[in-house]
Amino acid sequence: MADAVTRCRACDAPFGPVLCDLGTMAVANSYLPPNADRANEPRFPLRTVVCSTCRMVQLDHVVDASAIFSDYAYFSSASASWLGHARAFCDTMTARLGLDPGSLVIEVASNDGYLLKNFVATGIPCLGIEPAANVAEVARAADVPTEVAFLTPETAGQLTARHGRADLVVANNVLAHVPDINGFVAGLALLLAPEGVLSVEVPHLLNLVDQVQFDTIYHEHYAYWSLLAVERLFARHGLQVFDVETLPTHGGSLRILASATVRPASPALLALRAEEAARGLDSDDFYRGFNARVRKVLQGFQAWLAAKTDMGRKVAAYGAAAKGNTFLNAARVRPKDLLAVADLSAAKQGRLLPGSHIPVIAPHELLAMGPDEILILPWNIAPEIVGQLRSAGFAGGLWTAVPEMRRL
Asked: Ranges for the Methyltransferase putative zinc binding domain (predicted)?
């Protein structure tokens, strides 16, 4: 079920312009068993709008989060590059904050323990908070203490009563996944010790717009973040941003550091505030014209696919990621158009992609089918996937489609 939203979920102001309207789609991470009733697959409007006041970009139809995240098919440890990113973060924050066996680190949306296991290995106490019970069980099996819960002010109070408040709270790539954004950020504030630091990573809205990353829009992503919108949201809950770092992950992200105590703004923070102001993120004009650019990307891919099909080339795809599902559904791709989609995740293999109903298989099975061209759907980790496929002996064409068709 999806509820229509008519006012901003962060500040209750009326909506401004529509950023992107992708029509009606299946939920991007709701993979189907092969015998599923495909005709009655749930589909919901997928449209992003801009708050006229706080400038939070958000969906105007909200799909029930418990139905999406209570049993989830995404496991962070499936990506070697993401594991390296997490390990480097843990090393950096341990040194910067002086974390030791007397500290406590809490990660919200801790997934399969991919990040916290680095703190476990160095003897720093930690706790994961993960709403998906199936994913949390994987983390526990790896000796990462994990509680199954959605973060709210109530659950934050219960958890801190049992475990204490944290010197470092981590919330990586989860701010987009929360329909009750005020309750969630209030919970983050409650988890922090008085001098504690909150570290949040979010894909940067500037990159989404500049690189036409419309495929990062899906029902699990309720909001899309600029520094401007994050600072306004955090300030309402007593959290002050004091530093920011730009990252290459997920097509260009921000690592935002905040605390309840006032700290001097870093030069990087001042510079990014100025950049967003210069680009006009606080005005309607910045957000207009995006839909037309999306159509151009889709038309370019459809022309490429039609040309390859006419040539008799066998086309497949790699990476059963949510962004790929948005892309395939926006492009109206169907099973007849692709041999299959390969993915390393055993949780996705043997299932069908939502909406397009293309089968997901293991990489070695895809290569055995002899594709001539492979479209890499998770373009953010394309170099990693290219390395895997070339090492496995694939000599055909490797492509990405966003922001345009490009042979790798």
From this structure: 8-69
Question: Could you report the per-residue pLDDT of 205-262, keeping only the tens digit for each?
Answer: 999 999 999 999 999 999 999 999 999 999 999 999 999 999 998 889 999 999 999 9
Q: Is the pLDDT of residue 80 over 90?
A: no
- Integer Cα distance of 377 and 215 in angstroms: 9
Q: For the chain, what is the mean pLDDT?
A: 94
Per-residue pLDDT reduced to its tens digit, 250-307: 889 999 999 999 999 999 999 999 999 999 999 999 999 999 999 999 999 999 999 9
Distance CA 12, CA 385 (A): 42
Contact criterion met (CB below 8 Å) for 58 and 47 = no
Give the whole-angstrom CA distance, residue 325 versus residue 328: 5
Contact 59, 22 (CB under 8 A): no
- What are the C-alpha distances in Å from 266 to residues 243, 271, 273? 5, 9, 11
* 371 CB-near residues (< 8 Å, 6+ apart): 314, 315, 316, 339, 394, 396
The answer to whether the beta carbons of residues 283 and 305 sit under 8 Å apart is no
Query: Residues near 356 by Cβ (< 8 Å), separated by ≥ 6?
Result: 325, 328, 329, 333, 334, 335
Residue pair 353/374 in contact (Cβ under 8 Å)? The answer is: no
CB-based contact 348:31 (threshold 8 Å): yes
One-letter amino acid of 47 = R
Separation between Cα atoms, residue 400 and residue 408, nearest integer Å: 7
**Structural contact between residues 303 and 273, judged by C-beta atoms closer than 8 angstroms:** no
Nearest to 182 by CA among 3, 8, 5: 8
